[in-house]
Amino acid sequence: MIISPTKKKMKLSADGQMDSHLTTILPWFRVLSEYGKDKDVSGHGVSNLVYVSREKSRDSPHHFKAGALNALIRVSATMTNAPVILTLDSDMYSNDPQTPLRVLCYLLDPSMDPKLSYVQFRQVFHGINKDDIYGSAMRHWFEVLMSGMDGLAGPIIAGSGGFFRRRVFYGCPSEALEMNQDLRVSHSIKSRDVLAMAHNVAGCKYENQTEWGRNMGFRYGSLVEDLFTSCLLHSEGWKSVNCNPKRPAFLGKSPINFHDCVNQAMRLSVGLLEVAFSRYSPITFGVRSIGLLSELCYASVTFWAIWAIPITIYAFLPQLALLNSASIFPKESTQRWWNYQRAWMMRVLSSFSFGLVEYLLKSIGLSSIGFNVTSKVVEEEQRKRYQKGIFEFGVASPIFLPITMAAIIILVAFLSGIARVFFRQGSIEGLHLQILLAGFGMVNCWPIYEAMVLRADKGKMPLKVTLV
């Protein structure tokens, strides 16, 4: 590891922080290779490779990752000022050499929106076990949220794997000539003038009295500089694109220790809440420029940590109440909830389905099927069964066909699934939840099974409906 020199003796603590006796770490660079001059072991030319250590001082805030990215943007501008910038975390590596070509297809396509600011690739992590016990793949984030936002203003910056137009980081024209986005550097990156300029822009006081971190570069004010910056860029009118090729563009490393995993999520939660309750909160800022749907997407992310309140209540309150023999639900509420959801499911299968068909037939001018339902049950007997909580069928009506068919199919599927589990017939991987779902449906259908087989009163399911 290359250590930058300091005004005093350089020494880092175990966690990588400056010791208390240090005041400043000066900026330092090493040009490891230069395009057009250096070659690899096979004799082919190599690209520019420069190690950069920016200045840090206890008298000036360094703004964490956002400050490091802004320093790199300025230093690279003095050396090459290349129009495209890739941000990549140190624990990620390229997995597809065609990735730059995919990006250029977006950025150089004249039919694309000229306001396209960056192309974001999905983060894929290697080394995750087959069941992903920590949920490290973040499938909801990259497969659902990012894809959904792609149809709006565009996905958010994911912190790594993003290709940016350099000019997107200049919200207003720069006052410094060397930072001008249209400038093309022709000097050698090892020249004294270039290195002196790079040394200057990497200083911790360079940003003083400038727009860096506010209207230029990555924005300051939150630990999640990626989401914060993308929100402000979208508010300024920039667009973005989500690129998710079949072969992952980059692969990264995911924590395999649960302590590291939850600590990482804690830092993310703090940064998200900083955005949620700032002047740039998604619920109040940028609705007119980005649109309501995009702001709702941002809000669903920034208020992510608020889930701690209901989940904590769910984890402790019912259990503490149970230990103290205190009921948190009104009497009979559980039975009524069960009856409501069961009746709702049966209504959807029967009356809602037939109502939808009848409406469609009427809408296209065809005759709908009429049902003449006549009760044949003695009123007093029917009332007694109802008071006992027994379902009343008794009429051979086609409206009962969907629920009886569904009940029979659910029963057969459940018994078939149980048989496969016990007798190990074929592959049962992934079927456990389906068996559980079928079991839930079967319990809901118990009044139907009872009416079809076990009951002998006049309110049972007519044999004609059962056989059909």
Structure description:
It is a single chain. This protein has 468 residues and is of the alpha+beta class. The longest helix is centred in the C-terminal third of the chain and has 31 residues, at 333-363. It starts with 23 loop residues before the first strand and ends with a helix. It has helices at 64-79, 99-107, 139-150, 192-201, 225-235, 258-276, 287-290, 292-302, 308-323, 333-363, 379-387, 401-423, 432-444, 446-454, 463-467; strands at residues 24-25, 28-33, 49-53, 56-57, 84-87, 92-94, 116-121, 124-126, 162-165, 239-243, 250-253. The strands form 4 sheets. A 4-stranded mixed beta sheet has the order 5-9-7-10. It has a 3-stranded mixed beta sheet with strand order 6-11-8, with no helix packed on it. It is built from 15 helices and 11 strands. It is elongated and about 105 Å long. Residues 1-20 and 172-180 have low confidence and may be disordered.
Ordered list of secondary-structure elements with their pairings:
Blueprint: E1 24-25, E2 28-33, E3 49-53, E4 56-57, H1 64-79, E5 84-87, E6 92-94, H2 99-107, E7 116-121, E8 124-126, H3 139-150, E9 162-165, H4 192-201, H5 225-235, E10 239-243, E11 250-253, H6 258-276, H7 287-290, H8 292-302, H9 308-323, H10 333-363, H11 379-387, H12 401-423, H13 432-444, H14 446-454, H15 463-467
Parallel strand pairs: 7-10, 8-11
Antiparallel strand pairs: 1-4, 2-3, 5-9, 6-11, 7-9
Helix pairs in contact: 1-4, 10-12, 12-13
